[in-house]
Each structure stands twice: as C-alpha cells, then as structure tokens.
TrEMBL record:
UniProt cross-references to InterPro entries, sorted A to Z: TPR-like_helical_dom_sf, TPR_rpt
Species whose genome carries this gene: Zhongshania marina
Protein name: Tetratricopeptide repeat protein
TPR repeats, residue ranges: 80-113, 114-147
UniProt entry keywords in alphabetical sequence: TPR repeat
Matching SMART domains: TPR
Length: 208
C-alpha cells in the first residue's frame, strides 16, 4: 500500500510537469488552426494579414507576429482571431495577466471561441484556481465535444489537482478516441489510473 501511494504521488507530480510542457508544445499548433477564427464571422479584408501573422508565429518570429496582430486589432477590433493569438503569444512568454486580457477580449468578439476558453482554463490552473480551470475546459467541451485538447487538459486537471480519477479516466479515453489512440503517454496514464482504481476497489472490499 505504501509503495502504491508513493507511485501515486510521483505520477501526480509528473503529470503536473507534463501539463505545463504540453501547453507550451501546442502554442504554435493552437495558433495555426482554423478553430481560432472559425466561428467569429471573420474579417476577409484582413485575412491575408492574419495569415501572414500566423506564418510568422509558425516560423518562430514571435515579435513580428505580435506587431502584425496588434495592427489588425487596431483596424478590426471585433476580429476574434488576432486577440486569441496575441493571448497565445503572451501566455508563451509567461505574461499571464496580459494573456488573460487578450483572451477575454477574444471572447467579447466571439463568445463561442473555444480556443480562448481552453487557454483561460490553463491560465486559471497557473493561478491554482482549479475550479475556474475546470469550468473553462468544460465550457469549451460543451460547445465542441470533439475538442480533444480540452478533454486532455481537463483530464490532467482532474487527475493532478482535483482528485477525480474516474472523471480523469473518462476524459483521457475520450481524448484517445478522438486522436486515434496515438499518444502512448496518455495510454500509460490510463493504465495507471485503471490499476490504481482497481487496487482501491479491491482493498476497500477486503476492509469491509
């Protein structure tokens, strides 16, 4: 039992670290998806400029991208996509308050912007406001049940911070289903959770 608890503590700490790594690794992936601007009505007049800004982000030219995005917001303040990507850039630079402001502005422009919600969930977790983080991820999933990254983030939050292993397991499984089960690390987390839950269930029965 003691060794199992030690393993559990290690896995929880490990997942917390990987949670931050995962968010950082998807910075450019999130910024380049159509989902950022898909439902905000868009602004075809500045579509080319927006595309150029995303290209700069993907190339790692963050300052140029940021300058271009700010210029678009000045000309088209109701365009949700640039605000979202400015938030992603700020989060990547650990300017969390600024990032939060950008994401809220994005939501003012498009209240169904699930990418902004997903990032606000992450920013809430950085502040250790895990209840708010859960709400943001859940809101994103309610709008787009196929938003795999939100399922994964919510699963990790449940696992590492909210002590809800069954809920975590459910969302890990959804993530794996939606992504074709290619993430071997998530597969390992699922097995670990299943083993721990089976262990607890079996030993609870013995105690009774």
């Amino acid at each position: 039992m003691a060794s199992n608890l030690i393993l559990r503590k290690f896995m929880t700490h490990f997942i917390k670290i990987l949670f931050a790594i995962f968010i950082s690794s998807v910075l450019l992936a999130c910024s380049s998806t159509n989902q950022v601007v898909k439902n905000d009505g868009g602004n075809s007049r500045y579509a080319a400029e927006f595309k150029d800004a995303l290209t700069a982000m993907q190339a790692g030219d963050i300052e140029s991208a940021k300058t271009a995005l700010i210029a678009i917001t000045e000309k088209a303040p109701n365009y949700s996509g640039p605000w979202t990507n400015l938030g992603i850039i700020s989060a990547g630079q650990r300017q969390y308050d600024q990032a939060e402001n950008y994401f809220y502005q994005a939501l003012k422009c498009q209240e169904r912007n699930t990418v902004a919600m997903n990032w606000l969930g992450y920013l809430s977790s950085v502040k250790k406001d895990f209840s708010a983080a859960s709400n943001w991820y859940s809101r994103a999933i309610a709008i787009d049940p196929k938003y795999a990254e939100a399922h994964l983030n919510l699963a990790m939050l449940y696992e590492a911070n909210l002590n809800r292993p069954k809920a975590a397991l459910d969302h890990y499984r959804i993530y794996q289903t939606q992504t074709g089960g290619k993430n071997t690390l998530v597969s390992a987390w699922i097995r670990n959770l299943e083993e721990n839950m089976n262990y607890v269930a079996t030993n609870s029965e013995v105690v009774r």
